[in-house]
Amino acid sequence: MSFYNPGIPNEGSGFYQPSAQFQVPQGSMSFTQQPTAQAFSQDPLPQGLLNALSTKGHPHELPLLEEIGINFNHILAKTKVVLQPLQRADSLSAEVIADCDLAGPLIFCLLFGTLLLAAGKVHFGYIYGVALFGTISLHTLLRLMGSEENKPKTDQLFLRTASILGYCFLPLCLLSLVGVFIPLNNVLGYVLALLFVCWCTWSSSGFFTVALHLHNTRVLIAYPLSIFYSVFALMAIFV
């Protein structure tokens, strides 16, 4: 006795008759779609030595700086908010507030140290040391003050703290620029240092209240922030 299945080739028949219920599987193993190869074949890279040394890529690729986390639009937006004390930090989008880039803070720290060097004050080691110790201390304080439902992860909070402190460091760069031309170890220098420290404190406290969803705690946050920025102001005043 032999059984005939129309979906299986019959031995000796010489032909194959597929079943009506048999279908070619369509999914990840399908060979009918090859979007990657077609995309690269339609948009070839330009040839030549100059093009090889440039940063041009395929049209659908992200820029190199955005791939490594440097977005100049976000840096410019945060810098404008710091330079305009009357502008509120909540005017920025949530994406800009959540961006924890450290490119701007590193630039401002190097600029502050370079301007102090131009005034005859070599404080690079003190700048990095105080910045690191102050960031860790303020990170611990903000970690304890944040609410449980809105509290971000520990690594994200540390990077966000360092980013906000670094961006609000920009007014002290202006103070060090003034110190290049006139001495600050006088009454005028003390008044200017106090104004710039208040400027940094106001901007950073506004950023922290928006980024960490804190309510009615701006004055409480402003106190340790003012101490943090006062240390750098003392570097700009005294030799």
Automatic annotation (TrEMBL):
Its main subcellular localisation, reduced to a broad class, is Golgi
Q: Enumerate the Gene Ontology biological process terms.
A: endoplasmic reticulum to Golgi vesicle-mediated transport; vesicle fusion with Golgi apparatus
Record GO cellular component, one term: Golgi membrane
For this UniProt entry, which segments traverse the membrane? 102-120, 126-145, 157-182, 188-212, 219-238
Query: Which part of the chain is the Yip1 domain?
Result: 82-234
Membrane topology field: Multi-pass membrane protein
Record's keyword terms, sorted: Membrane, Transmembrane, Transmembrane helix
Localization terms from the record: Golgi apparatus membrane; Membrane
Transmembrane helix keyword on record: yes
Matching entries from Pfam families are given as:
Yip1 (PF04893)
**Superkingdom:** Eukaryota
**What protein family does this chain belong to?**
Belongs to the YIP1 family.
Kindly provide the name given to this protein in its UniProt entry.
Protein YIP
User: What species does this protein belong to?
Assistant: Lachancea nothofagi CBS 11611
